[in-house]
Design a protein that fits this description.
- Keywords: Membrane, Transmembrane, Transmembrane helix.
- It comes from Patiriisocius marinus.
- This is Membrane-bound O-acyltransferase family protein.
- This protein is mainly alpha-helical.
- Helices cover about 80% and strands about 0% of the residues.
- The protein is flat and about 45 Å long.
- The chain has two domains: about 1-45; about 45-94.
- The two termini are about 20 Å apart.
- The chain contains four helices and no strands.
């Protein structure tokens, strides 16, 4: 799905309405909707790349949970750099 396509012109208002009016300001539900909408958006273009986005999501979410529990500044920096390197590695490879 391209940003200048009819599909996106239909997709965006639907997601906007769902996000602001249907989820009723429930933050967890809004976040879940955004993740699912992102997967649909990228999968619409080429479903084969969804595994890369899923992998990146799992890595970043797990590192985020570890950052929440970690108190050592040096370990937090290492975790942050791991996340950055994984994501930049994907960008560099593709």
């Amino acid at each position: 799905m391209l940003f200048n396509s009819i599909d996106f012109a239909i997709f965006l208002p639907i997601m906007f309405i769902l996000y602001w009016f249907i989820t009723n300001k429930n933050l967890k539900l809004q976040n879940l909707l955004i993740v699912v909408a992102s997967y649909v958006f990228y999968g619409w273009w080429d479903w084969r790349f969804l595994s890369l986005i899923l992998f990146s999501t799992v890595i970043d979410y797990s590192i985020g949970l570890k950052l929440l529990k970690e108190e050592s500044i040096s370990k937090r920096k290492i975790l942050l750099w791991i996340s950055i390197c994984v994501n930049l590695g994907f960008l560099g490879f593709f």
